[in-house]
């Protein structure tokens, strides 16, 4: 359903992608450009917010680790309230609304309230970072599958993940929001048999102009995580495909004497 087709009070649940505005879908861009009000998360880049039309109402409901000034229940209630006062409401989320974005919870509230909505998917951070770094999510002979998990949990609690299933050398493991639990992630995976020499890549601000990459091993993951900047999105990639990342592959060729480093 496109913006010209909607009736009164329609909510667009829009995936903003990993940060680069050029990675927005055409449908997402149209929804953003025609919105009356935009309710956005903390990780939506300023470049994407600048695409909103002049005078649009911007409402920041962003959360940070252990800092949730706008609880999810309040966001749900806000969307219902806005739908009673505006025609086109965009709920703008980083990445994809249905990948650790709690989009399905918001959709359930809208559906129960009888409010029309459209979900517009976005490129999730794992896909964007795979493209920008050159590290594929799967690769024949290196990774037959990929798993997405969240490395975030309530303060003071340990992560409740399928550690046995995740410690698979033939699977690429993508950890969202895992910076604060890097030590636990490393320890649990090695305890379940994943080798400490498994390649790891941590990417800050993926796909953006200030993207930064850190290469490590599973054994040194915690040390590498401490080098990343606080307050910025960090994605952790664990698996043999990391060796195919552009920078990592070049370093390996130098180490193996295939090319000169001079």
Structure description:
The protein has 262 residues and is of the alpha/beta class. The chain has 2 domains: 3-120, Cobalt-precorrin-4 Transmethylase, domain 1 (3-Layer(aba) Sandwich), CATH 3.40.1010.10; 125-251, Methyltransferase, Cobalt-precorrin-4 Transmethylase, Domain 2 (2-Layer Sandwich), CATH 3.30.950. Helices cover 28% and strands 21% of the residues. The strands form 2 sheets. Strands 3-2-4-1-5 form a 5-stranded parallel β-sheet, with helices on both faces. The protein is elongated, with a radius of gyration of 20 Å. The protein starts with 9 loop residues before the first strand and ends in a 7-residue tail after the last helix.
In the CATH hierarchy, what is the class of the largest domain?
Alpha Beta
Tell me, briefly, the overall form: elongated
How many extended strands? Answer: 10
Structurally, the number of domains stands at 2
> What is the terminal separation in angstroms?
56 Å
DSSP helix fraction: 25-40%
Rounded mean pLDDT score: 90
What profile does the largest beta sheet have? 5 strands, parallel
How large is the share of residues in beta strands?
A: 15-25%
Q: Could you name the CATH homologous superfamily of the largest domain?
A: Tetrapyrrole methylase, C-terminal domain
CATH topology description of the largest domain: Methyltransferase, Cobalt-precorrin-4 Transmethylase, Domain 2
Radius of gyration: 20 Å
